[in-house]
Structures are given as structure tokens and as C-alpha cells.
Amino acid sequence: MAEQLTGLADDRALLGRTSTAERVSDILRSRIAEGYFPPGTRLSEDGIGGALGVSRNTLREAFRLLTHERLLVHELNRGVFVRVLTVEDVEDIYRTRTLVECAVVRGLGDPPYALDALSAAVTEGQRAAAGDDWKAVGTANIHFHRELVALAGSERTDELMRSVFAELRLAFHVVDDPHALHEPYLARNREILRALEAGDRHGAERLLETYLTDSLERVVEVYRRRVDSAP
Fold first, then answer.
1. Quick check: pTM over 0.85?
2. Is the pLDDT of residue 157 over 70?
3. Taking a C-beta distance cutoff of 8 angstroms, is the pair 24, 62 a contact?
């Protein structure tokens, strides 16, 4: 927990002078999505409040917001914990992803598309793989899909998917071999990017739909095996 709090203290500047529970929840959501707080982690009010320099009441309101987003869970007399997903949660996350991400690509309209951020996410994943940092590859993969959703230019869609992608990171944490999980999607991200660079949004949508179906099967298979074998 000490390492996570040290990194969290670096985020204090993001709060500015108008510290609010919403901004605190944004920081914590991002940290969960980046993998700093694994499922089952107990979140210390004193530790996190001290790292961010916020009051206990502000932090509790942020916890409440993230509990509503299904990222945290409050256990009576024990505290607040990062949520551990069920297999059904994982299936629902992918159902939502397919509905939203494929609709975004389908509705892009005529090319050219603004793909610089999407291309940067592909490069980020390749660089992480070259460094054998497969947790970072998973993060880059989430960045790729976040930037894909951002092509819609919709703040509401971005907000919806921020919490969905943070939940997805919770599922990734259960996987014991991130290399095997994430490596195939480096090439598939490039394929989707190339299709969009060519202006082929229909081809990109087909690639994406198959991608998400295959990813769901892989994640659920591994997730079910880990959950079933847990003590």
C-alpha cells in the first residue's frame, strides 16, 4: 500500500484549489484503471486522505461515488475495498463494450478520422511489449479502446466507458499470465487502426466485433478457472 500512496501523492496537484469529491473519485478511478489498486485491496481513509490532502468527508463521498460505479464495495465494520468481480460481471462488461465500441466505429461517418491518439496507444503497447512489461501492455490496450470510444466526440459516452474500462482492469488483475492474455491484441489493435486509416470503418467494426468476442472467451475462461480454484 505504501507504494500506491506514494504515487497517489503525486496526483495531489490535480486537485487544485477547488478540491471536490468528484475530482478525488476521478483520480481514484484512474488509479484503479491503471492497476495501482488490485481487487480486494482495502482503501485506507487516513492514508489516501493524507496522500491527496483532502478531508475525511470528501474522501468518503468519493468512495460513495465509486461504490455506485461498482468499483468499490463497503463492508460493514471492515471498511472500503476494491471490488472483486464475478464471471457475470465480466460478461456484462464485454456486452457493454460491444454495444458501445462497435456503435462508435459504425457511426464515424466519412474519413479521414482523427487517429493520432489511437496510433499513440498502439505505439505505447508495442513499446511496453518490447520492455516485457505486460501489465503496461494491458494498460495500453485499455488506452487504445478509450481513444477509440473518444472518436465519437461524446462526453457522455466517454464518462460511461471510463468506469467500464476501470472495471475491466479489475478483471485483468485476476489473470495470472498477462503476456498470454494481451500479446495477441497488439497485432489486432494495429489491424483496427490500419482499417480506420484506410477509411474502412465497416471493416474496422467487423475486426472489433470479432476481437471483443474472442477476448471475452479468453478472459472468462481464465477468470472462471481462477475464481473456481480460489480458497
1. no
2. yes
3. yes
